[in-house]
Amino acid sequence: MLLLQTLLLIFEKNPKNQTRLLHEIPESCWDLLIKWFFEYNSSNFYTNAFFEIIDLIFRCRDDKTAFSVLLKMGLLTKMLEAITMSKKVEPTEGIRCFTLTIKKICLSLASALKVAKIYALITMLIL
């Protein structure tokens, strides 16, 4: 948790350098953050902090990091598996909160994609 909080604090204090800072996080760190997201899925503090950093990737339009985290490290696949598994068990408060966080990540991704498409369209129309 401390690692994730430290990263978020660094991003908060350096808003102009967020994309550069995202690129400096090694894949091994992302892999660990993703692993903990699923291992400690009942920790609302961790899942909310994890959402914040994933949302930051989308807001910065960092395609390289987004591709690496979502596809290469399998976050999308793991989220789909977690949602599928959650439907097979009795929903607890922890499972409901974890599922909600996954849905927030998906909505953030959808919003970023929409913004990127609109931005590309406007850019094409202007140029």
Mean pLDDT value: 87
Give the overall silhouette: globular
Count of domain modules: 1
Give the percentage of residues in beta strands: under 5%
Rg calc: 16 Å
Please provide the ordered H/E string of secondary-structure elements.
HHHHHHH
Enumerate the spans where pLDDT stays under 50 for 5 or more consecutive residues. Answer: none
- Structural class by helix and strand composition: mainly alpha
Strand count: 0
For the record, give the distance between the C-alpha atoms at the N and C termini, rounded to a whole number. 45 Å
Helix segment count? Answer: 7
| Residue share in helix | over 70%
Largest sheet: none
Keywords summarizing the entry:
single chain; 127 residues; mainly alpha; 82% helix; globular
Task: Describe the 3D structure.
The structure is a single chain. It is built from 7 helices and no strands. The chain has helices at residues 2-13, 18-24, 27-39, 44-59, 63-72, 75-86, 93-126. It is globular, with a radius of gyration of 16 Å. Helix 1 runs parallel beside helix 4. With 127 residues, the chain is mainly α. The protein has one domain (2-126). The relative contact order is 0.12. The model has no long low-confidence stretch (mean pLDDT 87).
